[in-house]
Amino acid sequence: MTYEEMLKNAKTCMGPYCKACPVCNGKACTNQMPGPGAKGTGTVAVRNYDKWQEIRVNMDTICENRPVDTTLELFGRSFRYPIFAAPIGALKLHYGDKYDDQAYNDILVSACADAGIAAFTGDGTNPDVMMAATNAIKVKDGQGIPTVKPWDINTLKEKLALIQASGSFAVAMDIDAAGLPFLQNLTPPAGSKSVEELTEIVKAAGVPFIVKGIMTPAGARKAKSAGASAIVVSNHGGRVLDQCPATAEVLEEIVKAAGHEMKILVDGGIRSGVDIFKALALGADGVLIGRPYVTAVYGGGAEGVEVYTRKLAAELRDTMAMCGAHSLAEISHDMVRV
Fold it and tell me: Which InterPro entries does the entry link to (predicted)?
């Protein structure tokens, strides 16, 4: 299967909202929710993509000619590439009837592990979603990252018990999901967490804890204070707050605020291996990619995931070689022009 064949297949089965565009840039689905679009004016998803394109890469091939190593070490595990599939939820609502959350996560977790990367899995009001996701991760020797919503502490402890039983090497919370309608007005309350509340949750997790949804230096410092091992610079694809800056606009200042004590991941509009290179040059350790992996699963199942991952990896390797970086550690800020 080629990438083009995967896209063609996806167009036939992704429901009425997603167009399986050749480049997922947020323009065809602007202001379309349900669906893959963004909230309000719908411009945040578009801005996420556009701002990566404004960054240029600096070519320099006067360097040693040797193989490129894209390996990432994270929390004691080795990954073939610095790429993770982002958590996606409510698949039937947003992408049609072909897959529910459980079936999607089952395919994604296994296929990502086989491709040498890892998937973040989603969460939902149905307890079976987390149960199925953690089962899929357990089957793949813990090679996946369950992502919990910012529920009340008792609900979180129930979900963390499932996560610990899965053997997952890390756990995440998409704390910006506080802006999703289904989390609001719950009893007991769910949503935003204080540093003290987040500290309690991090301690209860028992594995490295990743806070997803950081968009300011202050947020990064608070996550670090709570004991997080990593953060994801993310605006939830523009789905929780209109008029946010793009992640590419805030990444550098957040990296400076976080220091070297935490790993820094970033998502939002990253669509190619060149974009991945840019993110690493600005200080990220790795990236998350969401909507295109949905397209990959719908268009080709496990093979679609492998095809898209291979495409990203080839683009990353080529960019590294043409900019004089032979390992991820050699990618530096002077290799991009902001």
Answer: Aldolase_TIM, Alpha-hydoxy_acid_DH_FMN, FMN-dep_DH, FMN_HAD
Question: What pLDDT does 109 receive?
Answer: 98
**What residues act catalytically?**
236
Q: How far apart are CA 180 and CA 175, in angstroms?
A: 10
| Helix, strand, coil shares, percent, the chain, to 5 | 45, 15, 40
Task: Locate the domains of the chain by residue range.
Answer: 3-19+31-337
- On whether 94 is known to bind a ligand per the annotation, the reply is no
Q: Which of 336, 328, 332, 331 is nearest to 72 (CA)?
A: 328
Phi, psi of 110 (to 5 degrees): -65, -45
pLDDT bucket at 26, cuts 50 / 70 / 90: very high
- Please state, rounded to an integer, the average pLDDT across all residues of the chain: 96
Peptide bond before residue 34 is cis, with ω within 30 degrees of 0: yes
pLDDT tens digits for 283-320? 999 999 999 999 999 999 999 999 999 999 999 999 99
Q: Is 327 helix (H, G, I), strand (E, B) or coil?
A: strand
Tokens of 22: 């050749």
- CB within 8 A of 315, min separation 6: which ones? 272, 273, 274, 276
- Measure the CA–CA gap between 282 and 249, rounded to whole angstroms: 10
Give the pLDDT of residue 3.
97
Helix residue spans in 115-266 (DSSP H): 127-139, 153-166, 195-205, 217-225, 247-258
Q: Give backbone dihedrals phi and psi of 331, rounded to 5 degrees, phi first.
A: -75, 125
Q: pTM of the prediction?
A: 0.97
- Between strands 72-74 and 77-79, the pairing is antiparallel
Q: What is the pLDDT of residues 122-172, one digit of tens each?
A: 998 899 999 999 999 999 999 999 999 999 999 999 999 999 999 999 999
Q: Is 260 annotated as a binding residue?
A: no
Distance linking the first and last C-alpha atoms of the chain: 36
CATH of domain 3-19+31-337: 3.20.20.70
Q: How many CB atoms lie within 10 A of CB 273?
A: 21
Q: Is 267 annotated as a binding residue?
A: yes
270 assigned ligand-binding residue:
yes
